[in-house]
Specification:
single chain; 352 residues
Length: 352
């Protein structure tokens, strides 16, 4: 049974909404002002929040602002209630991140329909979507229809890049969202001495460059093709039109971004503290899983020893020596420069 928190300072309105929702088999929590509402929402973590705007102590805008700062509840569907019916007020509420806006007075069916729609979308959006074209299509089908995806990808210019050709560099302002049609792209950081650390490898079916677009900042990394690559270029204005026309889409992009950052943090932590063998094994497993997730069966890792060393955070000479040891131990095979995983369990034991 979904739990709904109603934040309303009018006892009569609060009682009326509670009765309507309970008759429709919802579990209802109450709060008589904004401060109490924030406390109850944080403690109980309801499935949906209905909140009045004009309240003492803390108004509805303040409630939404405070809840958006709390990681455990920031994505909870949020519906504003208000007697303020001006378009400017409704627009303000939606721009702040509300999912819906009901104008008082409203009837029972209007309230129940809004609740049902928001809960249904929230449930579907909690499903796992991969950060690629298939995942985004599933997301948009839930959020706003497949036509948005068609508009995003149809008629886009495609650029081809040679191996080692730069796609964008740190300090530049983002102009495009990139979609990988063919090939592979690495993103990397450099220290003051110019030493490179590869943060991620992208393959067919994946987007890159949306971190800086979402943050509205210059690139803090650089992207380079590590093999002949074809990218679809989606102008920044089109990406923003898609993302900011629907908060569900924005939230999902942020969720995907957070997942990527978490993976990168774990990878960088391992580079800082793991042994040489463990770092090399971890880099090989990372590349193997990235390629496998992109539909390549038993992929040969042929992106150059320099790139693998940059992923592992080791010197190239140390990498080559360790790869030789792994080959002698039967963990990998090397054919025409490409590395093949022969015994993934051996590598996993090294890492774990």
């Amino acid at each position: 049974m979904p739990t709904i928190l109603v934040i309303e300072d009018s006892p009569d309105v609060l009682a009326n909404i509670t009765e309507i929702l309970e008759m429709d088999n919802y579990d209802v929590l109450n709060a008589k002002d904004g401060l109490e509402g924030v406390r109850v929402a944080t403690e109980k973590k309801p499935d949906l929040i209905i909140c009045d705007i004009c309240m003492p102590l803390l108004d509805g805008y303040g409630v939404l602002h405070m809840l958006q700062k709390r990681e455990e509840i920031w994505s909870t569907p949020f519906i504003f209630l208000s007697a303020l019916s001006a378009k400017s007020e409704i627009r303000k509420g939606m721009e702040l991140g509300a999912d819906d806006y009901l104008v008082k007075p409203f009837d029972s069916l209007e309230l129940l329909h809004a609740v049902e729609v928001r809960l249904s979308k929230s449930k579907k959006l909690r499903s796992s979507f991969t950060p690629d074209m298939t995942g985004l299509q599933s997301l948009l089908n839930v959020a706003n229809g497949a036509s948005l995806l068609d508009e995003l990808r149809e008629g886009r210019n495609c650029n081809t890049y040679k191996k080692k050709q730069l796609i964008y560099s740190a300090g530049n302002h983002p102009a495009y969202l990139y979609y990988v049609n063919k090939g592979r792209v690495k993103t990397s950081l450099h220290n003051e001495e110019g030493k490179e650390i590869i943060t991620r490898v992208y393959g067919p079916g994946e987007f890159l460059g949306y971190k800086s677009l979402l943050e509205n900042k210059v690139y803090d990394d650089e992207a380079e093709a590590i093999e002949p690559t074809e990218l679809a270029l989606i102008p920044r204005s089109d990406f923003e039109s898609l993302a900011y026309s629907n908060m569900d889409v924005v939230r999902k992009f942020i969720q995907l971004l957070t997942t990527n950052l978490s993976e990168n943090q774990q990878h960088l932590l391992g580079m800082a503290y793991n042994s040489l063998r463990k770092r090399v094994a971890d880099a090989l497993l990372y590349l193997f899983r990235r390629c496998s997730s992109q539909g390549v069966t038993n992929p040969g890792l042929d992106i150059g020893r320099d790139n693998i060393a940059a992923i592992a955070g080791v010197a190239k000479e140390s990498l080559i020596r360790t790869l030789g040891d792994f080959r002698d131990e039967g963990s990998i095979d090397i054919q025409n420069g490409a590395i093949y995983i022969k015994d993934i369990r051996k590598l996993e034991r090294m890492v774990n």
